[in-house]
Amino acid sequence: MASTILIIDDDAKLNKLLTAFLGDFGFHVLSATHPLDGLKKLKHKSPDLVILDVMLPGMDGFEVCRTIRQSSAVPIIMLTARGELMDKVVGLELGADDYLPKPFEPRELVARIHSILRRTKNIDDTRPQSFGPLKIDYARHLVTQNAENVELTTNEFAALAMLTRNPGKVFNRDEILQELRGIDCDAFNRSVDITMSRLRQKLKDDPKSPAFIKTVWGTGYVFIGSQDEGETF
After folding, report:
1. Can you tell me whether residue 81 is helix, strand or coil?
2. Alpha-carbon distances of 165 from 200, 210, 225, rounded to whole Å
């Protein structure tokens, strides 16, 4: 079944070109030139991934991203102006999964889409695991803590899955970045720290006295939660 991509960009010409280009790779593409129209299509069409421009009329891409994250964990690739560092930082802090500076090579966009969708599917083959109050259903991309749902983005879930599948193993930032991006990494390793910080906040895990994710200074991160043997949910 073809994956559905939603493009929210006020450049109608670019939308048309990307619709045709992505269609050649087997994607079903929806597009919107106004953010409110895009949010409406997101609600009614349930796309598998959103391509979101930062510069939009009436409501910028950051506000759209924030609005999406209030109710959906759909993967988001943000198109940033000139690759501005602050655009990347703000987008990631709001829950975007990846970023791509304009102008960009369409094939790189396709590679990033494939990477995110493949990463999502690869998580599905692990049985549920429990770590005290924290329970993870990899197939359903469901995380609960003390019986309450924890809403995670694709990147946050991928990072948590990587750590919880290998408790006690220290992963450096490059390894985590490779897992999150799935393609050639750049020097923007701050994206790892932003993702881990957001993940900890959602798990209410104090970095000074962690119950789940411990920072190994100068290296990376390790999952220290105790696994419950033979328990599923």
Report:
1. strand
2. 17, 18, 11
What is the residue whose two structure tokens read 């597009």?
31
pLDDT digits 0-9 by tens, 151-169:
998 889 989 999 998 889 9
User: Sorting pLDDT into bands at 50, 70 and 90, what band is 185?
Assistant: very low
The CATH number fitting domain 126-223, selected from 1.10.510.10, 1.10.10.10, 3.40.50.720, 2.60.40.1120: 1.10.10.10
Rounded to 5°, angle at Cα 168 from 163 and 171: 50
Q: What is the Cα–Cα distance from 67 to 162, expressed in whole angstroms?
A: 27
16-26 per-position pLDDT tens digit = 999 999 999 99
Task: Give the residue among 77, 72, 74 at the shortest CA–CA distance from 91.
Answer: 77
In this prediction, residues 5-34 reach a mean pLDDT of 96
Distance in angstroms (rounded) separating the CA atoms of residues 185 and 128: 30
Break the chain down into helix, strand, coil percent, rounded to 5: 40, 20, 35
Cα angle, residue 5 at apex, residues 91 and 125 outer, rounded to 5°: 85
Name the burial class of residue 212, with classes exposed (0-12), middle (13-18) and buried (19+) by CB atoms within 10 angstroms of its CB: buried
Query: Whole-model pTM above 0.90?
Result: no
Q: Domain ranges in the chain?
A: 4-121, 126-223
Is residue 132 within a helix (H) or strand (E), and if so which, with residue range? none
Average pLDDT value for residue range 103-130:
82
Single-letter amino acid code for the residue at 8: I
Distances (CA, A) of 159 to 25, 147, 175, 180, 192: 28, 21, 10, 7, 9
